[in-house]
Design goal:
Helix content: 40-55%
Strand order of the largest sheet: 2-1-3-6-7
Number of helices: 22
Structural class: alpha/beta
CATH architecture of the largest domain: 3-Layer(aba) Sandwich
Length: 455
């Protein structure tokens, strides 16, 4: 009874110039226990938005006196705490992406699916208050402008269903950013399924993502749900999305656009309600230029881009971040850094970013005497110190060439340690086999006998 009363207090503004669409939407929403106001164009919608408070706005894209994008921009400009969804023509993904970039919560394609409509409305009405929880903000430390920009973007995109692509170096916190987006959004109580795209064998990708029917191939002795079905109602996090083979990219694009998947061996598709967040440490735009990543899929994933800063870009924040990691790893014991240790950390280049910082602190905790970590307990590599000196002298410019040098040195070191076995070197570096193969080709690295590999 309390839930019904609560739903009855929610008011949705419908904006459309077609009476039959308005009637269908009104019947569906009143059937969900919601109140409805109707506007037959942009001007009437703006007037009602100025006069009343709404919990959701659902607008058509094309109307005689304007389009739904104007409604989205009005709501965004007025900083209304109001999710707005747009109805677009079937197959017009350009319009859908445009409204998502403008700040729309989500979109619906014609012909309308009432199941998708109900799911969208439930998600929109589940949004938390606009002010984020303090504990969520504290998970991404740092006062530097680059980190503040990331926090601001996370707050914004958490209140949307738009696909988000997170880029950044290995260890820079891409998955943490993805989890913060989920925790601050409407799907926070729904499953978040994470998948490393480089860890799935190519011949198993379709069945892993979409599931399969019993008897569809040898060994399929029962029906199996895929990753999309497991994430239904929640979020699918595609880590290292650049590692997807081109054949799978086509199928993934269709699943994202149609919001439907077909199990291997099935004759019919089934609807799925999944928000996509992707991440990679590789420049996807460059992969598109090289023909190794589909431009249409990149366009679809990269609706809202977030660039995670490298730890060396947050140099003034390193002491604060290091102390917080130390407090976490010491399990409440009163351990502290000396000033010399903090200075050494602040001057270190951290090619492995926050992940490397955690490993260094964990090692120092095991090696230090008592409750004080000295500089020598950190065991920072002299080679990295020299590299940092070079950076401070200006040898980091131009940046692409500098990063290529650093990457090539790290790859060669791992390859020499493993006798130029790419599989072992990839494991040592925390990369997939496909990733290390691509990087070796890009940087012109070959084994001592002149071949590509010694596996």
């Amino acid at each position: 009874m309390a839930d019904k009363m609560k739903a009855a207090d929610r008011v949705v503004l419908l904006v459309d110039d077609e009476p039959d669409i308005l009637e269908l939407l009104e019947m569906t929403l009143t059937g969900m226990g919601l109140k409805v106001d109707k506007a037959r164009g942009v001007r009437e919608a703006v007037r009602l938005l100025a006069e009343k408070r709404y919990d959701l706005c659902l607008t058509d894209m094309r109307m005689p006196d304007g389009d739904g994008l104007e409604v989205v921009r009005y709501i965004t400009a007025k900083r209304m705490d109001l999710p707005v969804a747009v109805i677009t023509a079937h197959g017009n993904m350009e319009n859908a992406i445009t409204v998502l970039k403008a700040g729309a919560f989500d979109y619906l394609a014609k012909p309308l699916s009432l199941e998708q409509l109900r799911s969208l409305v439930k998600s929109a009405l589940s949004l938390p208050h606009a002010e984020p929880a303090d504990d969520t903000r504290q998970l991404l430390l740092g006062r530097a402008a680059a980190m503040q920009k990331v926090r601001d973007l996370i707050e914004k995109v958490a209140r949307s269903q738009a696909p988000v692509h997170i880029s950044g170096e290995s260890g820079s916190g891409k998955e943490l950013a993805a989890r913060l987006i989920v925790q601050s959004g409407a799907r926070r109580d729904q499953p978040m399924v994470s998948v490393n795209c480089g860890a799935i064998p190519e011949n198993l990708m379709e069945s892993e993502f979409f599931g399969y029917k019993k008897g569809s191939f040898t060994g399929a002795d029962k029906d199996k749900e895929g990753l999309f079905q497991a994430a239904n109602g929640g979020t699918l996090f595609l880590d290292e999305v650049a590692d997807l083979p081109l054949t799978m990219q086509v199928k993934l694009l269709r699943a994202i656009q149609e919001k439907r998947v077909r199990k291997v061996g099935a004759t019919a598709e089934e609807p799925v309600d999944v928000r996509i967040i992707s991440a990679t440490h590789i420049d996807l735009a460059e992969r598109v230029k090289q023909g190794q990543f589909r431009q249409d899929l990149f366009y679809r994933l990269n609706v809202i881009p977030i660039q995670m800063p490298a730890l060396r870009e947050l140099r003034e924040d390193i002491p604060q971040i290091a102390q917080q990691k130390l407090d976490q790893l010491s399990a409440g014991s009163p351990v502290r850094f000396t000033e010399g240790a903090l200075a050494a950390l602040k001057n270190y280049n951290f090619p492995g970013n926050v992940r490397e910082l955690e490993n260094i602190i964990e090692r120092a905790l095991a090696l230090c005497s008592g409750d004080v970590i000295e500089e020598q307990d950190l065991h920072l590599l002299p080679a990295e110190r020299a590299q940092q000196d070079a950076v401070e002298m200006g040898e980091k410019y131009p940046l692409p060439e500098y990063l290529d040098r650093v990457e090539k040195e790290a790859l060669l070191e791992a390859l020499h340690k493993t006798g130029f076995n790419r599989t072992a070197a990839a494991k040592l570096l925390g990369l997939t086999f496909r990733t290390i193969r691509y990087r070796m080709e890009r940087l012109g690295i070959k084994s001592p006998d002149g071949t590509e590999d010694a596996d």
